[in-house]
Amino acid sequence: MIIADLFHEYEQLVAKAEHSFQETEKNHSDCIKCDIHCSDCCHAIFGVFIIEAAYINYHFKKMDAKIRQEINVMAEKFDLELQSKAQTGEPIEKLRVRCPLLNDKQECQMYKHRPITCRVYGVPTMIDGKVHVCYKSGFKNNQVYPVFSLDMMYKELFELSVRYLEALQYDKDENAALLLSVSTVLQKPIEEILKEI
């Protein structure tokens, strides 16, 4: 029951991110260039906190077995491509690799349960005190826009991750700050990932 409660709290954070995106879209629709089948954000490299990893894995396990198998093949390809590109010395945040959840129709196969980072990609976000925007967007440097603070969201995700680890009776709370790739989360249960840390 504790895990279900934590997942509910996570869904409230999701709702907060969704609301922020919708408000920005309502007030600055000309600046947001997100369209159906636009998958630029699906090639960005980022990690998810433990609570989000557990939530994604939980819903992934409920998907059709054939689709899960296809996604796991893509996850393995993702890992190999990322490993290859990482050897170039390019900063990880600049690397581009296709998300294993992106299908041939340029649609996310877990759209309803996609990470929070994916949900706010098209609006200005703050990470490490710096504002970032999608290069396709129409947001201009010399104007003021609302900014979604991923820094604040990460703080809340960290706190939820600490509580999730405590619920699992996992004694290494410092791992609540660990960021996992979506491909890792899809290929292994969260308990197995934690055992390997």
What does this entry look like structurally?
It is a single chain. The chain is mainly alpha-helical and 197 residues long. It has one domain. Helices cover 48% and strands 4% of the residues. It contains seven helices and three strands, in the order ααααβββααα. It has a three-stranded mixed β-sheet with strand order 2-1-3. A hairpin with a 2-residue loop joins strand 1 and strand 2. Helix 1 runs antiparallel to helix 5. It is globular and about 50 Å long. The chain starts with a helix and ends with a helix.
Quick recap of the structure?
The protein is mainly alpha-helical. It contains 7 helices and 3 strands; from the N terminus they run ααααβββααα. A 3-stranded mixed β-sheet has the order 2-1-3.
Properties at a glance:
mainly alpha; 3-stranded mixed β-sheet; 7 helices
**Separation of the first and last Cα atoms:** 25 Å
Class based on secondary structure composition and strand pairing: mainly alpha
Strand numbers in spatial order across the main sheet: 2-1-3
Compute the CA-based radius of gyration: 17 Å
Question: Average pLDDT, to the nearest integer?
Answer: 92
Report the major sheet: 3 strands, mixed
- From the spread of the alpha carbons, the general shape counts as globular
Number of strands: 3
Supply the number of helical segments. Answer: 7
Strand content: under 5%
**Helix proportion:** 40-55%
Number of domains: 1
Question: Which blocks of ≥5 consecutive residues have pLDDT under 50?
Answer: none
